[in-house]
Each structure stands twice: as structure tokens, then as C-alpha cells.
# Entry
Amino acid sequence: MQVVAVYGTLSDLLSVASNKLGIKATSVYNGKGGLIDDIALIRDDDVLFVCEGEPFIDPQTDVRPHEELTGSHTDWLTLNVGGRYFTTTRSTLVNKEPDSMLAHMFKDKDAWGNKQDHRGAFLIDRSPEYFEPILNYLRHGQLIVNDGINLLGVLEEARFFGIDSLIEHLEIAIKNSQPAEDHSPISRKEFVRFLLATPTKSELRCQGLNFSGADLSRLDLRYINFKMANLSRCNLAHANLCCANLERADLSGSVLDCANLQGVKMLCSNAEGASLKGCNFEDPSGLKANLEGANLKGVDMEGSQMTGINLRVATLKNAKLKNCNLRGATLAGTDLENCDLSGCDLQEANLRGSNVKGAIFEEMLTPLHMSQSVR
# Structure
């Protein structure tokens, strides 16, 4: 601002202003933007604005970069991000992340071309809510996000603008903000509520869930997918598991006495030490239970109905299969070492390649013939 004495004619005033300000003054305006064409209109306390012919611009409301107003270069600039204005410096946008998109946008004075709004602010079509933490990070190097701001949104903006160092900070912050995974077992009450809320015709998928130690006895669990679920030490006595998928499930130490296991799929499951006394694996419709490759070490399956069951390459070492119905069962390659098979019906069973070392066959309902190629 320059203070000058006003005297003579309007031309004299313009001449003095030109000399004082180093410009070629052609017009004079009052503080309200009114063009002055007679020096008599000027009062003693007036603040005047002179220009070189361009329209009047109120410096109190204009947000254009200062270099645009005066013709000289300055580091300050204003951004219009999604309709919200941010005033910052070119060095803030460039120095901390020189390889970022923002740095390339504002490294040179005219890098962003003519993409400015009517007030001279540079237009950026992004979310102002997520841009603010990024701008503050470029200012002081600290990640500070107000409550209610989604970190995932800030992360997406950081990736868009290529702020690599901030991306790492955000990924760590997001990971730390996630609630700890709840690995506690599902209780009977929770599971029953889940069953009641599921339509009967809908497939119930429980893959990988933790039911360890839960009491699921006498529940209707037909057709449920328990693949890779943790059912260790569960009470499944008298449960209906008809056609359930227990593939690779952990059933070690569980109690399944008198359970309905018609058509069950237990491929490669672990039922070591489980109790399956009096279970029914026999499906009248001909659908055979499949326990191929299952770990059944030390299981107690006494008195179970297992007609046509598939136990190929399963491990039944030290298992109790006393008085089981294994008519037509597939036991090819099965490990039956020290297994108690006394009183079993093995008629038409396939024992080819099975290991029966130390197995007990006394009082078998069907004699074991050498043609079955046991070892």
C-alpha cells in the first residue's frame, strides 16, 4: 500500500501512481469498485485502487494467487478440491514427495494449465474430506485424521496422488484400527439362534468356524457344510448329520454316539480318539458315507452300521470296531493295525492292500478269506 497526496487533476494522480507503483496506471477505483472519473469525487480518507486497464478485483474477497494479482511470482496458491478451498504453498505440494502427482502438477508455475475456477483457484476433482489429511501430512509429516474420517478413503486418495510414504503410514493405521479377530468357540445358544434364522432350504455354510467343545447334541445338522471346521471335543451325540460335509474337519476327541451319519462326507477329516458308538452310516437310498483318508486312530465305533462305507486309505490303528456292520465296505489300503474287528460283518468287504497286523478277528460273522489280499 502506498500513501500519496492527491492534488491537481486525475491525470496527475495517475502519473504519480504510475511512478510510485511501477505500473502504467490508467484507471482509479474507490473501495467499493466505483470508477473515479473526477478527482473531486475523492475524499480525504478514501482508499483508492489503480490498475492498468483490467476490471476491478476486490482484494478482500479474491482468492487468486498473489502473483496473478501483482504480476510477480509467489509460492502461495489456492486449490479448489471438490468445491472446498485450500490455501497452501507450492513448496508444500512439491518438496516432501517430489515424485508424486501433486508435485508434478505444481512443480512449474503453469503446470496445471488453465484449469482454474472463476476465482483463480486450481480445480481438483477429488474428495475434500480425504484430501485434507493428505495436505496436512505434506505440511508437517504427521498423519492426523479427524474422527469420522474413513482411513480407507484417505488411503485411496494417497494412492491416487502417489504419496508413497503416506500410503505406508495409512496401511499400518488401518491394520491397527481393525478389531482383533474373535477366535472364541461358537456356543450352542449362538448356533441354535443361527439355525433358526436360516431358511430350511438355504445352504448353511460353516466352513472353518470354531465350535470346539460346544454341545451340539441332538441338533438337526443335515446338509450343513462344516468343511475344515473345528469340532474338536464337541458333543454331537444323537445329532442328525445326514449328508453333512465334514471334509478336513477336526473332530478329535468328540462324542458322536448314536449320531445319524448317513451319506456324510468326512474325507481327510481328523477324528482321532473320537467316540462313534452305535452310529448309523447306512443310507437306505444307497448314498454311501465317505471317510476316505480320514484319521480314525483310536476311535470307538462299536456297534455302528457301516454298510458300503468308504474307508479307503483311512487310518484305524487301535480303533474299536467290535460288532460293526461293514458289509460291502471299502477298506482298500486301510490301516487296521491292532484294530478290534471281532464280531464284525465283513462280507463282500474290500480289504485289498489293508494292514491288519495285530488286528482281532475273533467271532467274526463272516470268515476273512485270503483272497481279500490283506497284509
Notes: The chain is about 20% helix and 5% strand. The radius of gyration is 42 Å. Strands lie at 27-29, 49-51, 76-81, 84-89, 122-124.
